[in-house]
Write a structure and sequence with these properties.
single chain; Arc Repressor Mutant, subunit A; Rossmann fold; 2 domains; 9 strands; 12% strand; transferase; O-methyltransferase activity; WH-like_DNA-bd_sf; COMT-like; COMT_C
Amino acid sequence: MTARARDWRQGGRRPRRSFVGWRNRLLSSPSVLSRLGRLPVVRHLARREGEALFAIVSGFVQSQVLAALVELRVLHLLMEETATPGALAPRLNLPPERCRVLLQAGAALGLLERTRRGYRTSRRGAALVGVPGLEAMIRHHDVLYRDLSDPVALFRGESETELAQVWPYVLSGQMEAEDAARYSTLMAESQRMVAEDTLDAVSLRRVRHLMDVGGGTGAFLREVARRHPGMRLTLFDLPQVLEAARGGESDVSGEVDIVAGDFRSNPLPEGADAISLGRVLYDHDDRTVAALLRRVHDALPPGGQVIVSEPMSGGAWPERATDVYFALYTLAMRTGRTRSADEIATHLSEAGFSSIRCPRARRPFVTRVVTATRA
């Protein structure tokens, strides 16, 4: 009896080397790569793959160039003028040659443009300046980078991360006034984009009363009020966080009902026919998420709608923005997790929701949306 026949009789098939394994062994051979690189048909493909690989290898260096440009406000300084490294160096307190390296690197990243007269901010650089909260987030990345200094320890769960201290409410539900102010500012500046993309994806025409849970200073509700004047709005968050919603330029107390509480230990107020959770679930573990969604379900009337909006994993189709950046960010927070839309849909279903939908979001790297209805 042949070996193949024995395998079939035993109910299986002899393991065969797969095409993917053969391909990977082939492409991991330096001599094969060298020969393939000389063929006109595959030369372009080989170069493209090589450039993509090097972009991954040099990613941290690129992010540090970005951090330096933001910290030194180079993009602001060159928004309406062109300058040489020698002219700009004294203003940045940098040696001219090192200033030249920074500007050249910024141009290579497409954030600056090089002209015969010097360097100026590019369209991409101007867009970066115009994105609310993006520069603040880039400055905030120094904490994340320190947490990533030993990535193996992070993945093994052996490191004490600073991000867990930056967002202490995740671990304990408690937050000092200074921490609450920092959190509120960072979230409010970027929440407008999230609100715009969420409301572009979801219709609130039939909603009379919307409650935003974990809504910080009310940035999301301000955008709702602008688009749907007359709708009743309620903001629910920790008492320390809500202090920022009652004062200063971000004051929403005149148009929004403000209710203080901790959704991990308090029932949610009833009366709203829609509840939004903007960038809330990915801050917390599965047990907390399950309990929160049950509280949301209990607070809504039959036919009430829940709106979940946050960066989500690509699931079966991994995405760089969420499955690399947000996944590791939430990992460093120690309790959070970036979930796919399917995972969130499962949580919603287990909490008692039905009619679960995933409307298309305009910019998935900003946010994705899942909605559901209480039966």
